[in-house]
Amino acid sequence: WLRLVLADGQSIWRMVRLALTSETDNAAVLASIDLTGAPPCEELFLASLDAIKQAVIGLAETVELLADDSSESELLATPPSRNSEKTKPNTEH
Predict the structure, then answer these.
(1) Contact between residue 51 and residue 16 where contact means Cβ atoms under 8 Å apart
(2) Domain coverage including residue 12
(3) For the chain, what is the domain count?
(4) Could you report the per-residue pLDDT of 52-65, keeping only the tens digit for each?
(5) 53, 89 contact by CB (below 8 A)
(6) What is the mean pLDDT of the chain?
(7) Would you say residue 69 lies in a domain?
(8) Which of 47-66 are b and which e, b meaning 16 or more Cβ less than 10 Å from the residue's Cβ?
(9) What is the pLDDT of residues 27-78, one digit of tens each?
């Protein structure tokens, strides 16, 4: 479920790259922006910071719920289908 939520988040905040660490004991969500090759521009830097901020605000509650082992949701106990991870990007923006 978490990978699906991150894929959806990345389609919303396209400037932000979202991923999971590969550690199984202390897995964490990573958010990054690659400005390699971009000209030095304060507005671009500030937009990048805002994009990460908005992604964290937008995903924090959902990710916290998915990470909570004490949650007893039958829906969340059922893994998503493999096809659901291949969602089309949201082009309505």
Answers:
(1) yes
(2) 2-32+39-74
(3) 1
(4) 999 999 888 888 87
(5) no
(6) 80
(7) yes
(8) ebeebbeebbeebeeebeeb
(9) 788 899 999 998 999 999 999 999 999 999 988 888 887 777 776 777 666 7
